[in-house]
């Protein structure tokens, strides 16, 4: 039987904030990560090393990384921090911050390979010891979206990953790989071929990716489409434990699609506190499924997430206020109103 533990990957500080127009102070971003790390969440995507011309909001991610390495918040358990990057330049920027703070003679031992499921590596001086840092690469299931998001073809995106993968493995870093627009594309329409997603997932796993996050960037996914995609991935030989699902909630189907995925044995889900977010290159698409909504739903099924829904709901209210957005989590608002 599948495990009753569901791993939530909190992507709010990255996917949630990247599309905000006004520049958010780095202190607010760090406070968000710190607060999330106190809720029981064990995996947090904390920023991205992308071109500041393309996604200006993420330009100060290296400051967040340096802060987390130098002054990791005391947390009840180790945290795995994830960092999104598209190319070798992004990896260089990530590694120079990481190696300066985490490696060499800085007093922080270089972390050994991290096991990926939120477990530990190295020590970095926090009370909880043993945080881990991982990188995430990203491609997409349609040519049009790959061009808009990363200015290259799908094949070129895979070529870009080869040196990233090699150097990440050398540095002992886990690598997650996203496949965007798996259930609908803003440029090519709602019918994306699930076999293309499967083919990409197989290539990325063969290349050495530790986990594939299959993303419904546009929120065009429905229950039957999600089921068909998951069946196609299984038929291609992809293990459920190698998959995460990443739902955006544009059409309000993210929870339904999460339940379909759960029934298919998926146990890792990406979400953003307060339902923050959207992709700058997916016009009209709204935020990720709210972490509070997922946690509330999973707990109602008797599943465990380790997350304290009240603490998480407070963080959702706080960040919504800080950036002047409405809180998009129904469960979060209801929890706060109790
Ligand atoms: P490009 O313009 O073709 O790149 O962009 P380039 O290599 O020609 O470089 C242009 C300039 O950018 C140069 O600077 C480079 O140095 C610089 P200049 O010489 O002109 O001063 N540059 C960089 N700077 C910092 N970090 C870097 C970097 N790379 C180049 N890594 C590129 C190609 C891939 C860089 C660009 O398209 C890009 O950054 N794309 C990322 C866009 C993005 O942030 N999208 C959102 C994240 S993905 C997402 O949200 C989906 C997800 O949530 C899943 C889902 O829901 O689908 C993950
Ligand atoms: Mg996303």
Poorly predicted residue ranges? 104-109, 112-128
User: What is the β-strand count?
Assistant: 8
Give the overall average pLDDT.
Answer: 92
* SSE topology string: EHHEHEHEHHEHEHEHEHHH
Describe the overall structure.
It catalyses: (3S)-3-hydroxy-3-methylglutaryl-CoA = acetoacetate + acetyl-CoA. Pfam families: HMGL-like. One of its GO terms (molecular function) is hydroxymethylglutaryl-CoA lyase activity. Residues 6-313 form the Pyruvate carboxyltransferase domain. Keywords: Lyase, Metal-binding. The chain has 338 residues and is an alpha/beta fold. The chain is 40% helix and 13% strand. The chain contains twelve helices and eight strands. An eight-stranded parallel β-barrel has the order 1-2-3-4-5-6-7-8, surrounded by eight helices. Strand 3 (80-84), helix 4 and strand 4 form a beta-alpha-beta unit. It is globular, with a radius of gyration of 18 Å. The model is unreliable at 104-109 and 112-128 (pLDDT under 50). Bound molecules: 3-hydroxy-3-methylglutaryl-coenzyme A (HMG) and magnesium ion. 3-hydroxy-3-methylglutaryl-coenzyme A is lined by residues 15, 18, 48-55, 85-87, 89-90, 93, 138, 149-151, 178, 180, 215, 217, 246, 248, 279-281.
